[in-house]
Design brief:
Largest sheet: 7 strands, mixed
Shape: elongated
CATH superfamily of one domain: Ribonuclease H-like superfamily/Ribonuclease H
Strand content: 5-15%
Oligomer: single chain
CATH topology of one domain: Nucleotidyltransferase, domain 5
Distance between the termini: 97 Å
Structural class: alpha/beta
């Protein structure tokens, strides 16, 4: 069957309503009315009416096209619905299935349930392309997507417990300080590179590769600190250049009021972040009586004793996000930085067109950012970011149950119950299809049988064939403790940070390493000795060397003693050196020249 069939006529499809009308017309003919009269009354062709009457006389059932196609389906409606539910749940927990895996699963499911399958399924041990295309067309909620890479840390950290703790602290701040949207700020950093990521363009069809010129293969990066608040306003950004000394011309063309810093590493540090807090205080004029609240992530550069002291003296309250949750709880990451990168890449492309043959440097980043900044930091983007994260206005129920499905693999298993053990058939019938368990419900999954219809008599479900992955219990980490959502500068948090700083200061300093040049010279000298010994060993044995250099046993022993005096022992020269080298280095062009000649032959 053609996968993309197009109708070639405008005739009305045989739907269920049309079949009912046809039944009434047949009954009218059976009562004695003429074919022509009934055809005109019901709007049916005489030939179709005659054919329907003949089929009814032969005992054949009149059915619609959709009803007739059901008889050719490999799976029943219930089986397909359960398979769709399994695919959707697997996608929500972070383990979506590709097309080949779906076809293999469909074949195994059909064999386990005893369904008849075509010959090509048996030959390839998987479903065919036609079935996959028709399956997607019957269930429009399925589509082929390119997944976004998500780390296990992000998937497991974004759970109900961490998110609930964050919103509880945010609610407490709302109640204690009567927060308003203009006093809630979000701060986060991103990287701007000198090499853009090409966007989709119009090019010749059928060409495999379409090129677009960029300045560098990888390019240099400039860190940008974005600052926004709940009513859609934004402060001038802060830029950190990968240089040792800052020059004013680096900010040429940047948004007005932009603050610039330099760091050899090119990223944010604790000292630079304290200066960024000075930048925030200068624009907001906040005091202890008129506080502002800044939401930021748990990066080590943001949390320091100096930053906490400055915030306490100037009326800045820091609320840190739970670790690895910024992709869902950070307004800048949700709705601002993505448009910024898109506009920034377009601005670089325009800059390359206006400056042909010229390579972009970090001195041009500020000017390009000035073009893209106002297009991305709009009121609509900023306010939608605060709303989608539930921060402003406060909405603790902004995330649904499906948003926490990715943390399912790290949930603790249920306690062993005292109920009777199920049989294998009962376990198969009670397998979960509606999704992973709810972490908040005492870490126990809900009753999966409630999601099935009472008439379901499936022998095998997709989850029995391919269960949802579940992480085993891991050992407790003994390294650095994980971060958490904190309100700074609270007194307990500040005392904990000061204790860690004092503990780190008491640690003894590591022994300084040798200078790189000295270590490299020593390695080269040692490598040269070994390589020359190896070369001489491969050239021949002692008998070959004795014929060339006329060496006897007594002279060999005295020369080896001389090498020992020079400390060229087993560490630098092979233990079998006297058997393979001539007695005097003066006569050997391969031995190291810095070895003094043997006094026996001088």
């Amino acid at each position: 069957m053609v996968r993309t069939y197009k109708r070639k006529s405008d005739r009305t499809e045989r739907s269920t309503e049309n079949v009912q009308q046809l039944h009434k017309a047949v009954m009218a003919v059976r009562k004695g009315q003429s074919f022509r009269q009934v055809a005109e009354e019901f709007g049916i062709k005489k030939s179709s009416l005659r054919r329907a009457v003949r089929k009814d006389g032969e005992g054949k059932k009149l059915a619609s096209y959709s009803e007739m196609s059901q008889s050719r389906l490999i799976f029943t409606i219930e089986e397909e619905v359960e398979l769709v539910q399994y695919l959707l749940t697997a996608s929500r927990i972070g383990f979506p299935l590709d097309t080949a895996t779906v076809k293999s699963l469909a074949y195994t499911l059909a064999i386990r349930n005893g369904n008849r399958v075509p010959d090509n399924w048996e030959k390839n041990k998987q479903a065919g392309k036609d079935w996959m295309t028709a399956f997607k067309s019957r269930h429009r909620q399925l589509s082929i997507r390119t997944p976004e890479a998500t780390s296990i840390a992000r998937a497991t950290a974004f759970n109900k417990h961490n998110v609930g703790t964050f919103f509880e602290k945010l609610r407490r701040l709302y109640q204690e300080h009567t927060l308003t949207p203009e006093r809630i700020y979000n701060v986060d950093k991103t990287a701007l590179t000198t090499s853009q990521r090409p966007q989709k363009v119009v090019a010749e069809a059928g060409v495999k590769q379409v090129a677009q010129l960029v300045s560098h293969e990888r390019g240099e990066t400039v860190a940008m600190l974005g600052i926004i608040n709940g009513i859609g306003n934004c402060l001038p950004p802060c830029l950190v250049f990968q240089r040792k000394n800052f020059k004013n011309h680096m900010l040429f063309g940047a948004p007005p009021g932009t603050q610039g810093f330099c760091n050899p590493g090119g990223w944010m540090t604790q000292e630079i972040f304290v200066q960024c807090l000075h930048h925030i205080q200068k624009h907001l004029r906040c005091t202890v009586e008129k506080k502002v609240f800044v939401i930021l992530d748990n990066h080590v550069s943001h949390i320091s004793v100096e930053a906490v002291d400055y915030c306490r003296d100037n009326g800045i309250v820091l609320l840190s996000l739970p670790p690895h949750c910024s992709h869902r709880l950070q307004p800048l990451d949700k709705t601002v930085f993505s448009p910024l990168k898109r506009q920034y890449n377009a601005a670089i492309t325009s800059w390359m067109y206006n400056n042909p043959g010229k390579r972009q440097t970090i001195h041009d980043v500020a000017g390009i950012l000035g073009t893209a900044y106002n297009r991305a930091f709009t009121i609509q983007n900023i306010t939608s970011g605060f709303k989608s994260t539930g921060i402003c206005p406060l909405d603790t129920e902004v995330f649904s149950e499906t948003d926490f499905f990715q943390s399912y693999i790290s949930d603790k298993p249920c306690q062993q119950s005292t109920t009777p053990i199920e049989t294998s058939t009962q376990a198969a019938q009670n397998a979960a299809v509606d999704g992973p368990p709810d972490p908040s419900a005492a870490d126990c999954p809900p009753d999966p049988s409630a999601s099935r219809s009472p008439d379901s008599i499936l022998i095998c479900s997709p989850e029995v064939i391919r269960p949802y992955p579940k992480a085993t219990q891991q050992r407790k980490r003994t390294g650095q403790a994980l971060g958490r959502s904190r309100v700074l500068p609270d007194t307990p948090q500040k005392a904990e940070m000061e204790a860690k700083k004092k503990k780190a200061a008491k640690k003894p300093r590591a022994v300084p390493k040798k200078p790189r040049a000295v270590a490299k010279k020593a390695r080269a000298s040692k490598k040269r000795l070994f390589s020359e010994d190896r070369r001489w060993t491969l050239q021949g044995s002692y008998h070959q060397s004795s014929e060339i250099f006329n060496v006897n046993e007594d002279s060999r022993g005295r020369c080896f003693s001389w090498y020992k005096v020079l400390n060229f022992t087993h560490k630098f020269i092979c233990p079998t050196l006297p058997r393979h080298v001539p007695p005097c280095p003066k006569q050997c062009p391969i031995l190291p020249r810095h070895v003094p000649p043997c006094p026996t032959f001088v």
